[in-house]
Design goal:
This protein is about 95% helix and about 0% strand. It is mostly helical. InterPro entries: ENTR1 (IPR026757).
Length: about 160
C-alpha cells in the first residue's frame, strides 16, 4: 500500500505540475488574444479615421469642383457677351470707316478695350478650366482611394 500510495502521490505531483504548465500556457494565450483584440480595435479605429478624413477631402474637393464649374460657366457667359460686344464694335468700326458715325479714334479705343476685356476673360476661363480639370482628377484619385479602402476592409 505504501508503494502504491507513493506511486499515486508521484502521479498526482506530475499531474499538478502538468496542470500548472497548462494553466500558464492558457494565461499566456489569453493575454496574447487580448493583445491581438486591442491591436485589431486600434487598426479598425485608424482605418475608420482615415475613411472619415478621405470623405471630408472628397466633400471639399466636390465643393471646389462645383465652384470651379460655376466659375467656368460664368466666364463662358461673360466671354460670349464680350464676343457680342466685340462684334458690335467691329460693326461700329466699319460704319465709322464709311463715314456714318463718330471719329475713328473712339472706335479704335472701344475695340482695344473690348479686345483687352476679351483677352482677360479668355485667360480667366483657361485658369478656371484648369482648376476644374484638376478638381476632377483629385476626385478620381479619392474615388480610387476609397475603392482601395473597400478592398482592404474586405481582406
Amino acid at each position: 500500500l505504501k508503494e502504491e500510495n507513493a506511486s499515486l502521490r508521484s502521479k498526482i505531483n506530475k499531474l499538478q505540475i502538468f496542470s500548472e504548465t497548462q494553466a500558464d500556457k492558457m494565461r499566456k494565450l489569453e493575454k496574447k488574444l487580448e493583445e491581438n483584440k486591442i491591436k485589431e480595435e486600434k487598426e479598425a479605429q485608424d482605418l475608420e479615421a482615415m475613411v472619415q478624413h478621405v470623405e471630408q477631402n472628397l466633400q471639399l474637393m466636390t465643393k471646389r469642383a462645383v465652384k470651379a464649374e460655376n466659375n467656368a460657366t460664368k466666364l463662358k457667359q461673360e466671354n460670349a457677351l464680350l464676343q457680342v460686344q466685340l462684334k458690335n464694335y467691329k460693326t461700329e468700326n466699319e460704319a465709322l470707316r464709311s463715314g456714318q458715325s463718330a471719329s475713328l479714334a473712339v472706335v479704335k479705343q472701344n475695340a482695344d478695350l473690348a479686345l483687352q476685356n476679351l483677352l482677360t476673360v479668355i485667360t480667366n476661363s483657361r485658369s478656371s478650366i484648369k482648376q476644374l480639370i484638376s478638381g476632377a482628377e483629385s476626385l478620381q484619385l479619392v474615388a480610387d482611394l476609397l475603392k482601395s479602402i473597400d478592398r482592404i476592409s474586405e481582406v
